[in-house]
Design goal:
Helix content: 55-70%
Number of domains: 2
Largest sheet: none
Distance between the termini: 45 Å
Number of strands: 0
């Protein structure tokens, strides 16, 4: 049976350039966006899969995951997220950087869920496992409460708040999407946090030590 490493090598060999050649990957993305190269989308898809797969494979080899299925699930989830949202990348020269941010963001969310699960288990309470795969803001009534609270924010804060709290996007992703500097996005986030803390339904979540950081 082929190993994940050998399978990835087989796919990488189909790329006409190195996975680390971000200039070539960005150029392919640029040509695809302009629509003047029918082969560009295939190259973009191929590079993206190789990069995402290699990212989580490297984490797996370091013993980060409890099982290989976690790495596979994160690879699939991240690739699909990139597919759904890459039309928000306004600067083609930032495509590869944006993909790397999506990978990092997804991995950090996984680690937060895993640590939360371990904490619950230590207290002998109900277990939320990584297989259930949702961040706090994606769980039932909590997401609904966040939605309603965000709609009550000033218009200029609504989109960045929604992207940060409900779509798990990093500051760099939000910056690309709304066309504002990262420093401005951070300011927007802190202003949103200050107002969300006044909502009684969200007290349990927004009063966590890490929420406003």
């Amino acid at each position: 049976m082929p190993t994940p490493t050998s399978e990835l090598r087989t796919v990488i060999d189909r790329l006409p350039f190195s996975v680390d050649d971000t200039d070539a990957a960005n150029d392919a993305f640029r040509r695809w966006v302009k629509g003047n190269d029918p082969d560009a989308k295939r190259l973009v898809d191929l590079w993206t899969y190789c990069y995402v797969c290699r990212y989580f494979l490297s984490k797996s080899t370091k013993g980060t995951f409890d099982s290989t299925s976690d790495a596979d699930e994160l690879t699939t989830r991240t690739y699909r997220k990139v597919e759904r949202n890459r039309d928000s990348v306004r600067n083609p020269d930032r495509y590869t950087n944006w993909v790397s941010v999506v990978c990092k963001n997804t991995f950090l969310n996984y680690r937060r869920r895993t640590q939360f699960s371990e904490s619950i288990e230590e207290e002998e309470g109900p277990t939320l496992t990584s297989d259930e795969g949702h961040s706090v803001a994606e769980i039932g009534f909590v997401r609904e409460a966040f939605n309603e609270a965000i709609e009550g924010l000033p218009p200029y804060l609504q989109e960045p708040a929604r992207r940060y709290f409900l779509e798990d996007q990093e500051f760099e992703e939000i910056s690309e999407a709304i066309g504002k500097p990262v420093a401005t996005v951070r300011t927007y986030k802190h202003k949103a946090v200050k107002q969300l803390r006044t909502d009684d339904r969200l007290q349990e979540y927004v009063e966590r030590p890490d929420f406003g950081n």
